[in-house]
Amino acid sequence: MAKDNFMLSMRMETLAVFRDLLEDPVMNALKNMLYAADKAGDTMEAVRAYSSFAAALYRRSPNLSLYIRELVLDDENFYVRAYANGRDAAPAVEESLASELALLQELADLTSEDVQQAIDYHGFLPRWETTPCDLAADYAKRLEELPQKGFGIYAKYHTFQLQGDKIVPVRYPDRQQLDDLFGYERERRQIITNVEALLSGRGCNNMLLYGDAGTGKSSTIKAVANAYADQGLRLLEVKKNQIEKIPAISDDLASLPLKFILFIDDLSFAGGDDNFSALKAILEGSVSSGGDNTAIFATSNRRHLIRESMQDRTGDDLHVNDTLQETSSLAARFGLTIVFQRPDREGYLAIVDELAKRYGLDMAPEELHQKAETHALRHNGRTPRLAKQFVELLKSGL
User: Fold this and answer.
1) I want to staple 298 with a disulfide (CB 3.0 to 4.6 A). Which of 97, 178, 264, 289 is the partner?
2) Cβ contacts of residue 207 below 8 Å, gap of 6+?
3) Per 3-state DSSP, what percentage of the chain is helix, strand, and coil (rounded to 5)?
4) Can you give the pLDDT at residue 272?
5) Which residues on adjacent β-strands are paired with residue 297?
């Protein structure tokens, strides 16, 4: 290790903007290795620290440069949050940022040969890779791209869910693509137009998709979220019993430069459900203002969203009509309602034909249609989900 690289471990302790990087296990092991390499006379400790660092790095990446670059670009620190909200940093903070990026560049350029030379051990030691990079330029570019890429977990993932009060990433989300959906072109165009309004800040409607099960309501929302992820769209799934958390969630997300769909799937309520009143209050004023970066998208198999019994319609309430209007008014509070109806025979068979082409099925159209109709009758109806299941069964030989 060159003379001017000595005391890198101590210099790492001066990090302020990127202070949280020191909690990363690889960076902590790197600091320990550099400290041991700087100490004279204890080769055993230096070899042990060296190998511990290599093991920590190998678990995540064989390339030190790329690993540090990813940490730096995705770090959620006070500087990037202020920048995302248009606030200028003090000159002292800007000076610290430049100095820290230069230090992190030195670390990213550090080769295994540099450290082995400092340790002065002539047996085998594991090696790591380095790649030329310019952290200062890359970080400046990332700041410009914040509205599309975000920072922290929102830069690494695009689908999230709530665990308690914490937003956590979905590491293996549904990869549904728009090209995999057939039929319902008009409905998808409406959804896409609404999403593009959210992304552009023109004012997006909270949206309800309702209709028969298996018609692709949830799949369409997930596919649109996947399609627009690189333009700054993120999907946060909210369970029905978490609805009351939406105002606090929206406040937390308001400081981020990205746009968020708050997705409530399979929405329905039983009588007396407190979540019903909570959502109704949240939906007051269903069109987002230009500065808002969240919108609620919900799916339901029920138009009125609340399960009614005959007692609800004929009970002892002195104002039964007012009660029924109350239960049906929630759907009307969504700015945009899109209906997904089951396709007719022609529409169903058109979906089957498209899927058969996609799956490479070689079957006469007449036979394919006959089998598809039989399958639909056996399962009480025609839906895109049923069409896909039917074609997959044929493809598998069943």
Assistant:
1) 264
2) 191, 194, 295, 296, 297, 298, 334, 335, 336, 337, 338
3) 55, 10, 35
4) 62
5) 207, 263
Q: Which residues of the chain have pLDDT under 50?
A: 1-5, 285-291, 309-311, 313, 318-320, 322-324
Helix (H, G, I), strand (E, B) or coil at 287: strand
- What's the CA gap between 385 and 398, in Å, rounded? 17
Report pTM.
Answer: 0.80
- Between CA 40 and CA 220 the distance in angstroms is 63
Confidence at residue 310, expressed as pLDDT on a 0 to 100 scale: 40
C-alpha distance from residue 173 to each of 158, 160, 225, 226 (Å): 9, 9, 11, 9
HSE-CB for 198 with a 13 A CA cutoff: 33
CB-CB contact of 125 with 51 (8 Å): yes
The reported pLDDT for the residue numbered 166 is 93
> What is the C-alpha separation between 131 and 18, in angstroms, rounded?
21
Q: What is the structure's pLDDT at 258?
A: 95
User: Given CA atoms 125, 128, 130, 136 in this order, what sign does their dihedral have?
Assistant: negative
Contact 259, 233 (CB under 8 A): yes
The b-or-e profile of 82-96 (16+ CB within 10 A means b, else e) is: ebbeeeeeeeeeeeb
The residues, ordered by sequence, that sit 6+ positions from 389 with a Cβ below 8 Å of its Cβ are: none
Amino acid at 55: A
Which amino acid is it at 159?
Answer: T
- Look at residue 78 in the predicted model and tell me its pLDDT: 95
**To which residue do tokens 């390339």 refer?**
63
8 A C-beta contact, residue 102 and residue 184: no
Which residues have a Cβ under 8 Å from the Cβ of 110 and sit 6 or more positions away? 1, 5, 8, 64, 130
Q: Which pLDDT belongs to residue 139?
A: 98
Q: What CA dihedral angle connects 345, 350, 351 and 352, to 10 degrees?
A: 90
Strands of the 294-300 sheet, one edge to the other: 166-169, 159-163, 233-237, 259-264, 294-300, 207-211, 336-340
Handedness of CA 237, 239, 240, 241 (dihedral sign): negative
